[in-house]
Amino acid sequence: MLNQHKRPGESLDGGQAAGLLATMWRIRLFEERVGQLARSGDIDGLVHLSIGQEGVAAAVCSQLRDDDHVYSGHRAHGHAIAKGASLERVMAELMGRDTGLCRGLGGSMHLVDVEHGFMGATGVVGGTVPIALGSALAARLRGTDAVAVVFFGDGAVQAGHFNETINLATLWRLPLVLVCENNGFAEFTPRSAHTVVERVSDVVAPYGLERSTVDGNDVPAVWDAFGSYLASARSGAGPFLLECLTHRVRGHYEGDPGRYRDSMAEAEWKEKDPILRLERHGMAAGWYGEDELRTIGEAAAAAVEDAVRFGLESPFPPSALLEAAVYADG
Amino acid sequence: MAETTTIAAINRTLVDAMRADERVIVLGEDVAEGGPYTATAGLVEEFGVERVINTPISEAAITGVAIGAAQAGLRPVLEIMFVDFLTLALDQLVNAAAKAHFMSGGQLTVPLVVRTQGGAGHRGAAQHSQSLESWLTHVPGLKVVMPSCAADAAGLLASAIADPNPVVFVECKSLYFRREEMPDDPVPVPIGDAAVLRGGRDVTVVAVSRLVHEALAAAERLAAEDGIEVEVIDPRTLVPLDLATIVGSVERTGALVVAHEAVLHGGFGAELAARVQGAAFEFLDAPIARVGAPFTPVPFSAPLEDAYLPGADEIVAAVRGLR
Q1: What is this model's ipTM?
Q2: Is the pTM of this model over 0.80?
């Protein structure tokens, strides 16, 4: 059942690659600005950045429809943006403003954008894994071909609710794609100190679900592997698990002590950076040249600056919102 | 009117809700077998395994599944077989279900009902007998319902299923098979309305779940033996709480006893007492008295459990102690 994608990237074309680069640059530049704004005090609270992991978010979410529900964990800015959330409203949410996606009531770890099918992030590691399965159950019962996708880190795999959900998902054969971003660290601790099972795809092996491990910084490979699972899930099969080996450039959260690991050498990272790799890959394939790449990067930078301006100029929510927001009317 | 039981009323309400709305599904451990008390008996025969879903013993995950299904447009009724096992589901219930509407700025709703049951008196020992409702009332975003009779169980369960918010519906195993009269057609009971079950001018007794029947028995004795006229109020829902009905009664009687089976320490009676003294302090002629279980786990041994359980005797003593 372990899938081998022998010719990774064969299904990605130049137009799609350019679109993925645009998404990845938007996430990268957005999060670099978020890091600055957290240090300057314009963004409060716990901020978990996904710099280095953008390839997974872009390659997965770009293939989904608005009615495909995506759930995520605490490192979710990239997933929300890739699923279609506006940079302005994500930035405003991180700044606690009334114009934010969640009117400033959720913050960085609890982004939700129902309009685009981004159904929620969570500050509880692994907490959205069973919830995503519930969305897949609803799709099955309502007779739609919508697919549910949940992003989680390798740290979630050791939690009880993850293992309970794998059991249920395989028992019920629901159209859920589990996407693990294995960056090798659960918060401050390397995976090897938490479990003897190195690969997440091996943890779920006894359940017999279709699963694979890919280089998560190889965007065409992620695109292909996820695309084939998505097509199967769309036709009602499932569940599937895609493990993407990736690298978290920043700490667990902005301002963490960072003493627990060595930073990767700059030259080595340039080889691995999913954005630079896809740029090189597409230039070699003749999909785009340096001018097109510069345009993509500049457009992303301008959109991020617009988002920062939008957030800083937005009002904070009124205190009267608080009690009114607890219960739904009806 | 027809004779029925609380368990039959719950079963019929589930059937009616599933017939009326195909978004309503039932899931939980052994629900397709009817569950240990027959609450879901016969459902799978009429609605099939797609809508009456047996689950493994995985309370955390099945609660998450129910939340996700609710967020995606279904109306799940999740059964947690004993409230004691709700401990395993609390992360999903407290961190996800209760907060989703708020944290999403109103984008998400979680129209979920969690049916569970608690209470002692059946030699179930400390892990199958608890009354844990006060934990739930402490969490903004949850509604907490505790019916004490068949008609209220039916009317409140129908309202809970129709509610767009997560509702924890706490039944009492001791009341399941009590024979009662009930109208042929269930009358809807809105969430958040208390019921005044007996009028009285001297003392207000607010009692919850099984203790409602103990309070009514205590009121009979106090009227016959002491000439004290007790007003008995069943709040029926703890969140939201119909404080106005309770305060209105206390303004007339000038005295309040709060009674529940849960451990007294940190119980919902403490919240109720604080709220009433804040709203009606000048009307109170005596300190508010509380009746509840001692601060110990529920014991197994029969004489110890019988002595542990609060009932009519304790309510009578509390009322007499006000004077």
Answers
A1: 0.95
A2: yes
